Amino acid sequence: NAGVTQTPKFQVLKTGQSMTLQCAQDMNHNSMYWYRQDPGMGLRLIYYSASEGTTDKGEVPNGYNVSRLNKREFSLRLESAAPSQTSVYFCASSVYRGNTEAFFGQGTRLTVV
Amino acid sequence: DQQVKQNSPSLSVQEGRISILNCDYTNSMFDYFLWYKKYPAEGPTFLISISSIKDKNEDGRFTVFLNKSAKHLSLHIVPSQPGDSAVYFCALMNYGGSQGNLIFGKGTKLSVKP
């Protein structure tokens, strides 16, 4: 089983460039999430989608946009990348929001220079 | 303010001994508590959880203890093995409430030495 798949695994961007991080899950989960992990900061929620057709801001949404394309896919877009967005990004999914267990992808390591 | 605190950034334990990882929280509305394990270059994986109606949950070598009055959560690993070396995150939620998303601590890096 693939679980949660993120692409790309690595990316280097120049300041001001844009890009979209892709995430897909094959577990028929309703809820999906984007987190970022910075050294010494744990995982912080950027955006989430409780169900298909809905998206909401998390703890650190500034500089990002998301799209819940369908039940399987949830993308994260950086419109104008900044060095402060250098981080490791994780997509996750759960059966529904408030479900106890979330499953994570392998992460995307993004560097903005 | 941090709602979830893991005050020990790192912990080193000898193989075969007990590892105890701690987590403190401030919001008494949290009612579900989880531990995730993370290896380098991988995503976090779920390890064990406990609801607020219990004070202990055991799964093989892993036991989670919850002290609601102290707002304290701990993970015990007995016996510790070198393969347990990873970063451990506690994650909390208010099931069905306003915080239906997981809120993570900053993690504790466990090193188990052979």
Break the fold down into its secondary structure elements and pairings.
The complex is a heterodimer of chains A (about 110) and B (about 110).
Chain A: E1 4-7, E2 10-13, E3 19-25, E4 31-38, E5 42-49, E6 56-57, E7 64-68, E8 74-78, E9 87-94, E10 103-104, E11 108-112
Parallel strand pairs in A: 2-11
Antiparallel strand pairs in A: 1-3, 3-8, 4-5, 4-9, 5-6, 7-8, 9-10, 9-11
Chain B: E1 4-5, E2 10-14, E3 19-25, E4 32-38, E5 45-51, E6 56-59, E7 62-67, E8 72-77, E9 86-93, E10 103-104, E11 108-113
Parallel strand pairs in B: 2-11
Antiparallel strand pairs in B: 1-3, 3-8, 4-5, 4-9, 6-7, 7-8, 9-10, 9-11
Outline the biggest β-sheet of chain B.
6 strands, mixed
Number of helices of chain B: 0
Q: What percent strand of chain B?
A: over 45%
Number of helices of chain A: 0
Question: Termini separation of chain B (Å)?
Answer: 38 Å
The secondary-structure element order of chain A is EEEEEEEEEEE
What separation lies between the terminal Cα atoms of chain A? 35 Å
Number of strands of chain B: 11
Query: Given the helix and strand composition of chain A, which structural class is it?
Result: mainly beta
Low-confidence stretches of chain B: none
> Can you write the helix and strand succession of chain B as a string?
EEEEEEEEEEE
**Which geometry of chain B do the CA atoms define?**
globular
* Main pleated sheet of chain A: 7 strands, mixed
Task: Give the mean pLDDT of chain B.
Answer: 93
Mean pLDDT of chain A: 93
Cα Rg of chain B: 14 Å
Helix and strand composition category of chain B: mainly beta
Description:
- The complex is a heterodimer of chains A (113) and B (114).
- Chain A contains no helices and 11 strands.
- Chain A is mainly β.
- In chain A, the strands form 2 sheets. In chain A, strands 2, 4, 5, 6, 9, 10 and 11 form a 7-stranded mixed β-sheet that branches. Chain A has a 4-stranded antiparallel β-sheet with strand order 1-3-8-7, with no helix packed on it.
- Chain A is globular and about 35 Å long.
- Chain A starts with a strand and ends with a strand.
- The model of chain A has no long low-confidence stretch (mean pLDDT 93).
- In chain B, the strands form 2 sheets. In chain B, strands 2, 4, 5, 9, 10 and 11 form a 6-stranded mixed β-sheet that branches.
- Chain B has 114 residues and is mostly beta strands.
- Classes of the chains: A mainly beta (113), B mainly beta (114).
- At the A-B interface, strand 5 and strand 10 of A face strand 5 and strand 10 of B.
